[in-house]
Amino acid sequence: MTTNQAPQAAAPTATPDPTAPSARALRIIALCGLLALFVSFVLTVIVMLEDSIGDDGKAGSAIDAAFWALGLGTLAGLVAAVLPRSVLAHRARTFAVALQYMLALIAPVIAMMD
User: Fold this and answer.
1) Furthest-apart CA atoms within the chain: distance in Å
2) pTM, to two decimals
3) Smallest Cα–Cα separation from 108: which of 50, 46, 49, 26?
4) What digits encode the pLDDT tens for the residues 39-84?
5) CA 54, CA 48: separation in Å to the nearest integer?
6) 3-state class of 7 per DSSP?
7) DSSP conformation letters of the chain
8) Do the Cβ atoms of 51 and 113 come closer than 8 Å?
9) Distance between CA atoms of 53 and 42, rounded to whole angstroms?
């Protein structure tokens, strides 16, 4: 006895959506942001040294604020790069990366205000 069975259709495969948000891309951008923070740190140190040598010999409170901005930017970048997807939503990761770049850009400007 032979049975004639109809061939079963293969299960459809899910194709990845190219426009879907990617945590990996944001992690790479956050790691590049750490390099931007390092460049910003070097510029802030240059401004601080020029201010210390050229003026009264001491750094003011704006220099402290600039270094705090660099520290907070580093923290935001590490949070965006290290925390897993299950802990940090995509929107929060995007905000952390944007905050990191904003603080990297503003730190030397704050230091120049001293």
Assistant:
1) 103
2) 0.78
3) 46
4) 999 999 999 988 888 867 777 889 999 999 999 999 999 999 999 9
5) 10
6) coil
7) -----PPPPPPPPPPPPTTS--HHHHHHHHHHHHHHHHHHHHHHHHHHHHHHHHSSSS--HHHHHHHHHHHHHHHHHHHHHHS-TTTS-HHHHHHHHHHHHHHHHHHHHHHHT-
8) no
9) 16
